[in-house]
Amino acid sequence: MPETRTAPLTVGFDLDMTLLDTRPGIHATYLALAAETGVRIDADLVVTRLGPPLLDEIRNWFPEDEVERAATRYRELYRDLAFAPTVALPGAHAAVEAVRDHGGRVAVITGKYEPNARLHLEHAGLHADALVGDLWAETKGEALREYGASVYVGDHLGDIRGARHADAVAVCVATGPYSADELRAAGADVVLADLTGFPAWLDAHLAG
Asked: Does 2 map to a domain?
């Protein structure tokens, strides 16, 4: 059966490692934070596990009473170091346009600090009808529900949890820290190698 909608089609997208390869900028920012604070941070390790909130990662390297201050400084350094090396992942622009071709809206729901997420989208030339940052797993689901998203596209197990919380179709791309098999095992409804396959999937999904 074709999908029945009483509201305009809204598709949610995660940002890091779904729409954008933010690893080079994140890596550079953590190295700068380490150099400035004298705290050892394994930036190579950090970029293999993107997805959870920034504070969770910062806690791996800083004592609790320094976490908020370190996170604030990270966000400041990020603006100087992270945008230039970040590139759109294969199919990102086409995936966004595919939603619009169906008269739909694009909502970027991300764990990234929202002002920096907005700058990322501007730098990459990606337009979102809605953007909400600083969310993770079920809190992403709350935002998806608020915007009436029927599909959420992500790369992380937390994105599957968010989609489930919103009763949205969980579409996952294997461009992040998890393999296609791991995403399927975690309950993704659809697994794509990357976003290049999303327009054809969306066409078929909406056609039933």
From this structure: no
Are 107 and 177 within one domain? yes
The average pLDDT across 44-62 equals 97
| Shared domain check, 16 and 49 | no
* pTM metric for this prediction: 0.95
58 and 152 inside one domain: no
What is the per-residue pLDDT across 143-172, written as a single tens digit (0 to 9) for each? 999 999 999 999 999 999 999 999 999 999
Question: Cα dihedral sign for 125, 129, 114, 166?
Answer: negative
What is the span of the domain harbouring residue 196?
10-21+86-207
Q: Are residues 161 and 63 in the same domain?
A: no
E-strand spans in 79-144? 87-88, 105-109, 130-132
Whether 201 has a pLDDT exceeding 60, the answer reads yes
Which residue, among 129, 88, 135, has the nearest Cα to 109 in the 3D structure?
Answer: 135
Residue 6 pLDDT: 53
Tokens 């954008």 found at? 20
Q: Please enumerate in sequence order all residues whose Cβ is within 8 A of that of 17, keeping only pairs 6 or more positions apart, or say none.
A: 23, 50, 51, 89, 155, 156, 175, 176, 177
- Nearest CA-CA partner of 205 in 8, 2, 9: 2
Predicted confidence (pLDDT) at residue 93 exceeds the cutoff of 50: yes
Please tell me the predicted confidence (pLDDT) of residue 2: 42
Secondary structure (DSSP) of 119-130: HHHHHHT---SE
